[in-house]
From TrEMBL:
PROSITE patterns: CALPAIN_CAT (PS50203). The active site is at 55, 80. GO terms for cellular component: cytoplasm. Pfam families: Peptidase_C2. This is Calpain catalytic domain-containing protein. GO terms for biological process: proteolysis. It comes from the Eukaryota. Residues 1-137 form the Calpain catalytic domain. SUPFAM superfamilies: Cysteine proteinases. One of its GO terms (molecular function) is calcium-dependent cysteine-type endopeptidase activity.
Amino acid sequence: ALEILTGWPCTLYIHSWPGFDPEVLWATLASSRDFEFLMICSTKRVWSSGLESDHVYSLMDVHEIHHPSRGCVRLLKIRNPNSRSKWQGDWSDSSALWTPHLRSKLGCLESGTPHVFFMSYDDFLQQFAHCTICRIRSNDWYEHREPLQLLPHEVPRGAMVLDVFETTDLSISLVQPAQRLRGGAFYPRLQGKIACIGFVLLQADAGGGVKAHATAAISRRAIVSAELWLEPGQYLLVPLCLHSGPALPASWACFSSRRVGLAPRGLGQQEVRAAWIAYAKDCDPQGTRFRGATLHVGKAPGGCAVA
């Protein structure tokens, strides 16, 4: 929903996913706070503690503090959009864990603040199912959007030439209509499930070929994104798609801290092949020896490419 409302790329972190790393999430939340990104979190089914089941909250801030008896403690400042209930466990408004110094430092009044509460990171992971970070940038950033069509039963044959004139921070997304928009007012004739999409950003190498500078893993998602820094030069942005339904409207969304150039360009068969090979090699740089050849397997949630 945030992607639809804001137009900016979002990342969902599900706490129960295999390979989920609490340390990585905490570092991501802290850096997102520093960049002033929009953050929300959603509860799982809960039965007490003052939280509401399957409910979305605003994630306002994260803190790492020192407690006299508990040592280093990680706290989150959370806001309930409606005021019916608040967290009643450790670090709630009336919790005995608060010291006068910590209340003053974090702005937690003994009388509480409407809608707002604090909780520990451990409790957060237990009570909340997932969180979403929306990477909204300031108005100083430049926005580029270009439409494209993803045709059924064939790989995309169009790309975008990306000209970077000075060192630039970029957020690049490939966007298709979300499931909830299909069959509605915006896309009344579009039915079926979302396609598996991804992309690869190519750059010429010293040998005259191309290499992947960045990739977005092929996934069955409405938006796939990559965050990157680029040095001045010319790059080729190639969509990757595994799609068997009707022709699918999609678009590129490029947000940059400096002005860049973005222009469409057709691709030949060899260039399309080179893009898929570069994607697979970037996903699996070492490869696996098999009957005298080296196989590079680009595994992703939405499909696998082998080169």
